[in-house]
Structures are given as C-alpha cells and as structure tokens.
Specification:
Its main location: membrane. This is Flagellar biosynthetic protein FliR. Pfam families: Bac_export_1. It is found in: Cell membrane; Bacterial flagellum basal body. Keywords: Bacterial flagellum, Cell membrane, Cell projection, Cilium, Flagellum, Membrane, Transmembrane, Transmembrane helix. By secondary structure, the chain is mainly alpha-helical. The protein has one domain (about 5-255). It has eight helices and two strands; from the N terminus they run αααββααααα. The chain has helices spanning about 5-30, 40-55, 70-105, 125-140, 145-155, 170-205, 215-230, 235-255; strands at about 115, 120-125. A two-stranded antiparallel ribbon has the order 1-2. A hairpin with a 4-residue loop joins strand 1 (about 115) and strand 2. The N and C termini lie far apart (about 50 Å). The model has no long low-confidence stretch (mean pLDDT about 80).
Length: about 260
Amino acid sequence: MLSLTSTEISMFIGSLWWPFCRIMGAFMVMPLLGNSYVPVMVRIFLALSIAALMAPMLPPVPSIDAVSLGSFFLAVEQLLIGFMLALFLTLLIHVMTMLGNIMSMQMGLAMAVMNDPANGETNPILSEWLQIFGTLIFLALDGHLVALNIIVDSFRLWPIGNGILDLPIMGLISRMGWLFTASFMLAIPAVLAMLMVNITFGVLSRAAPSLNIFSLGFPMTLLMGLICVLLSLSGIPSRYSDLCLDALTAMYQFIGGIT
C-alpha cells in the first residue's frame, strides 16, 4: 500500500505550485499573453502545463509546508520574480509606443487617438500601429520562444528560495531610462526632418507675413510626417531587432545568466 507523509505531499505540491507562480507572474505582463483579450483560463492552463512538464527537471525545492504562511510568501516572491522578468519585454514593446507618441506630436497627429481595449489605454493611432508592428517583429524573431526559454532557465540560475532582494533590481529600474533612450534614438531622423519643416515655415512667416502659415503649414507638416513614417519603416526593423536582443540579454543577466 502506498503511503506518503505530509512532508512528501507538501514537496510534491510545492514542486508544481511555486514554478507555476513564477511562470504565471511572467504571463500576467508578458507582451501578447498579458493582453486582456487572452482569456485568463488560457494563461493559467498554459502556465500549469509548462510547470508540470519542467517539474521533474527542477532543482530540489525548499521543504516548506504547502499550507503555511512561509509557503504563501514564497509564492508571492515567485510571482514578483516572474513579473520582473517579463517587465523587460513590456518595456521593449513600449519603445514603439513612445516612438509613435513622439512622431505624432511632431507631425500634428497627437489629437488622433483611439482606445486600446487590450491594455485599457488611449494612445495616438500611430502609436497603436507601431506597437503592433513591433510586436510582429518580436514574434518573427522568435523572441517569445527565447523569453520562455529564459523563464525556464531561471529555475536553474535562480532556484526557488534564493530570495528576491539579491536580484539586481536597480538594473531593472535603469531600464526605464533605456526605454526613453531607445525610443528617442529611433525617432531622431523624423524629429530632425520635422524640425527643418518648422524652421522653413518660420522663415516663410517672416519673409511673407501676409501668407497664412496656419492653413498651409498643418497640411504640409502632416504630409512630411507621413513621408517620414514611410521612410522610417525601412530602417526600424533592423534597429528594433538589436533592441530585442538587448532586452533579452538584460532579461537573462537579471537572473544571473552570463552571455
């Protein structure tokens, strides 16, 4: 007759429950999977399936009672670790959103906004379009598979029970500055082109005061902005692929990986 002690049952439950918490924490904010149009049950089932497949290959988990207060804090800790891992990818996708905001303000399309039901936000149309473009580039590069592999490797590089305070959290905070830097780097050509257009119309307003700059300047600024967007599409994929590699490398190094 098979007999199991309470310690063995707790370790069996913990070997599945705590990996599930870390994976589910990543799926809550990960691009595409973290959107509201993906049903919660689908995310839970996918996270549970991955946790069940990798449970036999995990390092020994801490022997903590599954119904104790320590088990609860450990589960919350795993949720936060998964959340922070996926935050690198969220910032990567928001690079394109901020790029769209910068270009929209320069070309006069900041007032053309639309509601994003997936994220519960209201962004300019150009931002929404570039965000979809960036997500498709990320998927075309198999970035989602690499990110999932990093999450699985995190259980080997940062085993369950190692704590969260020893993680390089300041490195994650510094990625906020990386978000602004990367988006502005992609927007510099369009910003400079629009600046030249505005300088040109400023000179015209001084040379010909009777010329109605407002009725002429807005259509020309919008037309030049659309041309800049068209020309930027040829250079964005190669630059954005470098940003994807940078974000995935930072995600891997966050949990102690060496590249």
